[in-house]
TrEMBL record:
<keyword id="KW-0732">Signal</keyword>
<dbReference type="InterPro" id="IPR013320">
    <property type="entry name" value="ConA-like_dom_sf"/>
</dbReference>
<protein>
    <recommendedName>
        <fullName>Glucanase</fullName>
        <ecNumber>3.2.1.-</ecNumber>
    </recommendedName>
</protein>
<keyword id="KW-0624">Polysaccharide degradation</keyword>
<keyword id="KW-0119">Carbohydrate metabolism</keyword>
<keyword id="KW-0136">Cellulose degradation</keyword>
<dbReference type="InterPro" id="IPR001722">
    <property type="entry name" value="Glyco_hydro_7"/>
</dbReference>
<feature type="signal peptide">
    <location>
        <begin position="1"/>
        <end position="18"/>
    </location>
</feature>
<dbReference type="InterPro" id="IPR037019">
    <property type="entry name" value="Glyco_hydro_7_sf"/>
</dbReference>
<comment type="similarity">
    <text>Belongs to the glycosyl hydrolase 7 (cellulase C) family.</text>
</comment>
<keyword id="KW-0378">Hydrolase</keyword>
<keyword id="KW-0326">Glycosidase</keyword>
<dbReference type="GO" id="GO:0030245">
    <property type="term" value="P:cellulose catabolic process"/>
</dbReference>
<dbReference type="Pfam" id="PF00840">
    <property type="entry name" value="Glyco_hydro_7"/>
</dbReference>
<dbReference type="GO" id="GO:0016162">
    <property type="term" value="F:cellulose 1,4-beta-cellobiosidase activity"/>
</dbReference>
Length: 459
């Protein structure tokens, strides 16, 4: 995955990660039903809910209505430094549908790209909750995870993503007691991009804002980056729009949500010197040589709802064995569709992700193999042993216009070179100003989430 550390979505009056919990707006988590299945094919419905990430929320002074963060600038009085800011500022509850375009009904979750209320909101990121204060933790070794997705309304430049990250189940409250908001308010995000756009950063012993060293974005009036980033293992089950899709594990040398700064964050020229693998080991059918597999009217038809099955196979077919393979299956119109096969010179006809596939891909494409260097599939398996949090989001890309997913990337290399062509979108597509204007109503719908024994969640 080639997104940068900052996910530039900020468009509210004040959006940030907060230590304190606000009381001005009641936080009500939208309900979402999921199913847990067994080898007998029996599935049990679980009443769950979703919570909005803290970085989208209104951040204001604890005792009033004054914004701690407006546009991409901190209030100098409330936030003169990191520690004081976290003490002075509180996250508040969210109007999910009215402000953020997030709606849930039964087993279906809809995320609208742009919502215009009193303020313009772009994109969103939500987590599945087990209860009001705890994220649902997934341990998926020797298990499969299945969901339906309708991404027919997502054009070039957008990403409707479903993935897992190694967040703390309580959003960091136990490790960082000064965090009073916790999972109830969507705190604790981390991923392998070590995002530095997170405005309130949990340190090892406390919660601090990311004020010191904050640099407003030159391309986004509502975004910026700070000195610190937040890193952890990431398993991208689905990053996609109507033109392309990728499944991508990312490894790390750390085993829990971890603060980074400097080289450890892997920014710029230090990309391959950080503590996490930013590129990952992706299986994008188009990039792997089958350009007729997934897209409008193709074998996997993105104009219709798709059932996506991901199987996490272990070396001994037990939940305690080493993760050895990640398999992908699709179901559409009653037909089970096996994953496409690799058609790249010098590579075998792989149709799943293994360490051998990843090593062969990196060699064939001439890419740095940071995935192997930082632990490969073992890193993903270890994270699932601990438990990972389910994330669903929709976003655009202020760094490289999502070209890494759906076009030719890098753009200064011939598209005929192996690994450069990733989708049929133009290299001039995906500019945020364009997609936010032309595709404001774009929506991704996730539904029918199931998880359990391999072979139990689809037929």
């Amino acid at each position: 995955m080639f997104r940068t550390a900052a996910l530039y979505f900020f468009t509210l009056l004040a959006v940030a990660r907060g230590q304190q919990a606000g009381t001005l707006t009641t936080e009500t988590h939208p309900s979402l039903s999921v199913q847990q299945c067994t080898g007998s094919g029996s599935c049990t419905s679980l009443s769950r809910s979703i919570v909005l990430d803290s970085n989208w929320r209104w951040l204001h002074d604890v005792d009033g209505y004054t914004n701690c963060y407006t546009g991409n600038t901190w209030d100098a009085t409330l936030c003169p430094d990191d520690v004081t800011c976290a003490q002075n500022c509180a996250l508040d509850g969210a109007d999910y549908e009215g402000t953020y375009g997030i709606s849930a009904s039964g087993n279906q979750l809809s995320l609208q790209f742009v919502t215009q209320s009193s303020q313009k909101n772009v994109g969103s990121r939500v987590y599945l909750m087990e209860d009001e204060t705890t994220y649902q933790m997934f341990k998926l070794k020797n298990q499969e995870f299945t969901f339906d997705v309708d991404m027919s309304q997502l054009p070039c430049g957008l990403n409707g993503a479903l993935y897992f990250v190694q967040m703390d189940a309580d959003g960091g409250v136990s490790r960082f007691p000064t965090n009073k908001a916790g999972a109830k308010f969507g705190t604790g995000y981390c991923d392998t991009q070590c995002p530095q756009d997170i405005n309130i950063d949990r340190l090892r012993t406390s919660v601090q804002a990311n004020v010191e060293g904050w640099e407003p974005s030159a391309s986004d009036s509502n975004a910026g980056t700070g000195t610190y980033g937040t890193c952890c293992v990431e398993m991208d089950v689905w990053e996609a729009n109507s033109m392309a899709a990728a499944v991508t594990p990312h490894s790390c040398t750390v085993t829990e949500q971890t603060r980074c700064s400097g080289t450890d964050c892997g920014e710029g020229d230090d990309r391959y010197d950080g503590i996490c693998d930013k590129d990952g080991c992706d299986f994008n059918s188009f990039r792997m040589g089958d350009q007729s597999f997934l897209g409008p009217g193709l074998t996997v038809d993105t104009t219709q709802k798709i059932t996506v099955v991901t199987q996490f196979v272990t070396s001994d077919n037990t939940t305690t064995g080493a993760l050895s393979e990640i398999r992908r299956v699709y179901v559409q119109n009653g037909q089970v569709i096996q994953n496409s096969k690799v058609n790249i010179p010098g590579m075998d006809a792989y149709d799943s992700i293994t360490d051998d596939f990843c090593n062969a891909q990196k060699e064939a494409f001439g890419d740095t193999n940071s995935f192997e260097q930082m632990g490969g599939l073992q890193s993903i398996g270890d994270a699932f042993n601990t438990g990972m949090v389910l994330v669903m989001s929709v976003w655009d890309d202020h760094a490289v216009n999502m070209l890494w997913l759906d076009s030719d990337y890098p753009t200064d290399v011939a598209a005929t070179n192996p690994g450069v062509a990733r989708g049929n979108c133009s290299t001039s597509s995906g500019a945020p100003d364009d997609v936010e204007s032309a595709s404001a109503s774009a929506t991704v719908v996730f539904s029918n989430i199931k998880f359990g024994d391999i072979g139990s969640t689809f037929s």
